[in-house]
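Notebook B, p. 112. Complex prediction, attempt 2.
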Amino acid sequence: MIGYQFMGKAHSHAYRDLPFFFDLNYQPVQQAIAGRNEQAVKVAADKMGYASYETDWRKLIERDDIDLIDIVTPNNTHTEMAIAALEAGKHVLCEKPIALSLLDAERMLEAAKKSGAVHMVSHNYRFAPAVQFAKKLINEGRLGKIYHVRAQYLQDFVMDPSFPLVWRLKKEVTGSGALGDIGAHIIDLARFLVGEIREVNGMLETFIKERPSGEMSGGLSSTTSEAEQMGEVTVDDAAIFMSRFENGALGTFEATRFAGGNRNGNRFEINGEKGSIRWDLENMNNLEVFFADDEEGLQGFRTINVTEESHPYMSNYWPAGHIIGYEHTFLNLFSELMKGIEKGYSPEPNFEDGAKNQAVLEAIQLSAESRQWVDIKHLREETRKKL
Amino acid sequence: MIGYQFMGKAHSHAYRDLPFFFDLNYQPVQQAIAGRNEQAVKVAADKMGYASYETDWRKLIERDDIDLIDIVTPNNTHTEMAIAALEAGKHVLCEKPIALSLLDAERMLEAAKKSGAVHMVSHNYRFAPAVQFAKKLINEGRLGKIYHVRAQYLQDFVMDPSFPLVWRLKKEVTGSGALGDIGAHIIDLARFLVGEIREVNGMLETFIKERPSGEMSGGLSSTTSEAEQMGEVTVDDAAIFMSRFENGALGTFEATRFAGGNRNGNRFEINGEKGSIRWDLENMNNLEVFFADDEEGLQGFRTINVTEESHPYMSNYWPAGHIIGYEHTFLNLFSELMKGIEKGYSPEPNFEDGAKNQAVLEAIQLSAESRQWVDIKHLREETRKKL
Amino acid sequence: MIGYQFMGKAHSHAYRDLPFFFDLNYQPVQQAIAGRNEQAVKVAADKMGYASYETDWRKLIERDDIDLIDIVTPNNTHTEMAIAALEAGKHVLCEKPIALSLLDAERMLEAAKKSGAVHMVSHNYRFAPAVQFAKKLINEGRLGKIYHVRAQYLQDFVMDPSFPLVWRLKKEVTGSGALGDIGAHIIDLARFLVGEIREVNGMLETFIKERPSGEMSGGLSSTTSEAEQMGEVTVDDAAIFMSRFENGALGTFEATRFAGGNRNGNRFEINGEKGSIRWDLENMNNLEVFFADDEEGLQGFRTINVTEESHPYMSNYWPAGHIIGYEHTFLNLFSELMKGIEKGYSPEPNFEDGAKNQAVLEAIQLSAESRQWVDIKHLREETRKKL
Amino acid sequence: MIGYQFMGKAHSHAYRDLPFFFDLNYQPVQQAIAGRNEQAVKVAADKMGYASYETDWRKLIERDDIDLIDIVTPNNTHTEMAIAALEAGKHVLCEKPIALSLLDAERMLEAAKKSGAVHMVSHNYRFAPAVQFAKKLINEGRLGKIYHVRAQYLQDFVMDPSFPLVWRLKKEVTGSGALGDIGAHIIDLARFLVGEIREVNGMLETFIKERPSGEMSGGLSSTTSEAEQMGEVTVDDAAIFMSRFENGALGTFEATRFAGGNRNGNRFEINGEKGSIRWDLENMNNLEVFFADDEEGLQGFRTINVTEESHPYMSNYWPAGHIIGYEHTFLNLFSELMKGIEKGYSPEPNFEDGAKNQAVLEAIQLSAESRQWVDIKHLREETRKKL
């Protein structure tokens, strides 16, 4: 693994915990972790259970005892690391968004195709059992033709103007703000559940344009520097966009870090011809489901606690009604990755999904600048010509 | 109508509003209202739409132009008024609880039987469409055999120790406190939905034993008297009790005015062999329903907005999704009363229900004193011997 | 009053019920109702309490005993009726949207200004106590600078393809579909709470393009004609749009009749610098409020039952915790209208608001056609040149 | 560890996962697991990470390399195992309820006191962060004097009459049914949050008195035996009881396996002089809190997502809004146990709490038989005389 902050912890825990809950033929061994700061990476290796560490990520790729490279570093490093790893024949798991630009994402996809290695993107929320169950219902046609998707990812952790200028607020490191950080998740959920997006039109906004430029920390929190030096926030605090899906559905999306009271409100509602579903990450074990063909007078959203043995992944955990949490989305994702490595295929979401997601992100940025609708397929074609 | 405070307002509004929403053959005419304070009753008559007023309720009973006597006075006056009205051949609607004691309630029931007039008790919450719909589901066997009833009526309006000693806190006027005032409602709902209670065992508690003894007001609010004279609270602030129903179901009940944050939390859950239902007055248009025979994996409580045209009483009001409120429970009740008067029968809950309800109230008081289980049927039999 | 369908019933009830709950110096008298079908309007007059009826609305305007004309007819008749009434010196209450086009709305506004009469638009949801309370909090600065508005009006009553082609689905009668019918409400709420909208960009969609063209009914329901003749649906089933407010806030809006399971889901969330609020019409007595300056660790949305005596309008109704319903929004609105007539001013929302609302509606339609952002102020200026 | 079923899995996972999240001076090493079935225990040892296994639990106690004995076997074995372990100087963690009878529980407590070893009972729900936070609020006096506790543990997993006669339904193995299995949890929560219970009065009921007597399985599920041999259910399906706390608060409790639709509904509400709190295990990361001294008009239950860094235990896990699940209650409990072992004290809930809990359970059973109130202190005194 390369990186050891918030996502490093989440991934490391999942590797460690996976064999306990899942019976897998191919199991992870935490061989090594890489980070630039030797002291910190040593502590992290010890704490999180890695057998060794490196201070240069390139060393990790050179090592023969390592099959899978897991990239949990800031976004501006993903492309170089992933391509290097793939060229060395390593399997790659990469955090989202996979790149700073669509062109880089397409380059990563090309490298992945050439390598024959397994590749996957860490869109963990797909793997919440309630989301997988929603997908199953949609695939079975229980909602019929889809009319509407409305998805929001609402957070509030940077609302305080004294929150410092961490790397997640710098465009050169992260590419975009709320858009790529949390908007990428709801785009992935919408693509997973409803299908490809045909075109988008969006707005980006930075509400607080300057912040104390203290030393960078893990990206989610930091103490303010003593000296009140201010730096420019170069990414969006909020992104909103409309979309048309290829199957005709309408989408409204909003990703913001300025929705006070919403600590981690990743929520969606999907309305179809025959039914509707609702989900909210803050209550991630539940799925609300409405069926239009329920008996008259008895129609209403059902609150389903998606913890039954028959629900996706739940037979690995606890009896019905004993909820799981955030970290289990990674376990579920990793169980698919292990199966992919064992059998030689790249489970979704893979780099193809990563590139498609990046195309939507870039289209939104372009539409926000041009104030025009942007066609996703056309954007990808134009970009791939530059490969 | 006799009385013109909170309940007087609620009843008067219902009479006035009834013809607008319901097509009835027999319609109410607000002939007269009675109250002891001439100035106040005059204002009330004018405001609430009565053609005349009396300062002696006996005059009302003597008048030939009055068919129905509606008793909304404090509890200690119900028995005398109701018996007098029934003996004069008037129909009677009486607020709950109908009496201070079971013996009085049985006397009222006897008078009602002798008179041949229509009699009814104003247990308005039965007439919330969601409750009527719950009854329909239970009657149709959709819940199967009933195992559990848990019902709570939680309020908090007297928690402040400076809240004065209004009539609702004096035993000689009101009979009991939370027990008779709000406990009577959940007993009625349980009897209506699940059937008769066989035996009970309960506790009563008065948390604040002395209060400022200002002038009495409407029972729900009052300003404190200037002089800080204190008087004894002679009724319960809270009542809790267990019960066994005649059909074998277990019941847990709680009525309290000391549940902070619960303004008017009248709520129940009923669990049966095949399903469960939940209701809460604070969200009275919804009913939550669970069916054990819903498809595996898709089981969960449905939140049904009981506002469809097919739901009880709702075709009289607005299109689906346009909610009704507290006052409409009285309109629905009164529509039944009018039908009863037209056709010559006493709709439930009538004085038979009033007496049964009073028997449960008295049994709880007895059990709280004796710390023993009390059998309801036996208590009624013993009491009726004294008639 | 002109018209006697769903809105006719709602308005008539409010006139009738108003004096019971409100102490007003100026009180409504239901003098006359107009409708083209004599038999039907006669029944309506009788049922809803009007002293007389007319089969030609012009007669109503000619009558000296009528001060206020209330227009609850289909949208294509509003402009002519309102202007005629205003020119005759009558006060006018008009249902929303006030016109089929912005030009017509501006003409109505001009007529209103010239007449000196009182004018008001029936945006009743503003008058839900929880919404008024939200406004009070915002006005007091409790939310600080506003960052986000997300508002949805979700219904599902036309999802069945066999639902007939009622007037609400015909452009020549109604102007637009979900947009003008329910979108107009959330635009009004957003303008009321957050301020003017600077520019919009939206999409309109008609999911079911042909329907059985039976006889028209009340607009909300109808039985299908026997002969399966089909007619074209000429309005939108759904409208989604993004907006920028003049104060810088971002807005996402969605109005649809194709959100299965949402009978009447008019809901919004507003996020500000210091707090957030949420409201949902289906649970209209509650307001959820978050304050960023609540003690650390104890922050969370409060569910406030807006039924206290201190809450807007609630002292007119029942004690705390006794909820009101849909119809009371009209009572509250009408109490303001009566005060306006008494004192000679036009309470908001008046025809100025009506025109501003219509400008947003028209801008969305234009943006949906042109796929461009449309500036509201510019649109009004250009339109007013044509007056 | 002795035992390897549902609780065995939960405990083993917690040992394994603990060092990842907590920085402890004393850390668990999974030395050995014991079970009677060699094949099964071997698989379990391997799967759950134990270095060795034994088929006789006594061997475990004899081993020098083992400091802590964790008893997760059926209830009828706890007493013998715990006393043997304590006598051998081992620390003991025991599943709840700790014994079949109060006398056995008192014997275990005596053994614990004599041994000087660390002892603890596995009441894991105390360690949900929201519950710990509730305790903190109560300790700080934020709720004032406590008036009411209402607690329910509602499940539905045995409602199907074909669910077999597993050990959890046999009195000789388990002591009681819903009472000891889930009632013990809500008693522990009530004691933890509100204090000791003075007296109780309860009812027990077995709704389904015979079941297919297949081979015993893990206690929570089983396949039915082919031959339809029926056996008697000798424990309660449901337990309800009233209580008085020593501080004067009233309690209503209900533990049942017959509340359809409630998979794991462990919920309570506590009302005090200054505020109220609500919690539900199915949504275990949230705590609802009401403060009576919140500003007038702005009072309401706050839904607090207890996932902030400042909330109990949460700094060990993820950023705010990233929820934890059922299994983390064990990690939190074990972190306390490790600290106790390191520093030589027995963290609560220890065997003193275990005995007190058992006293309440036994008092309820006695009251259900005698139909009388039972005094807890008196019961313990009488029982301890038999030691």
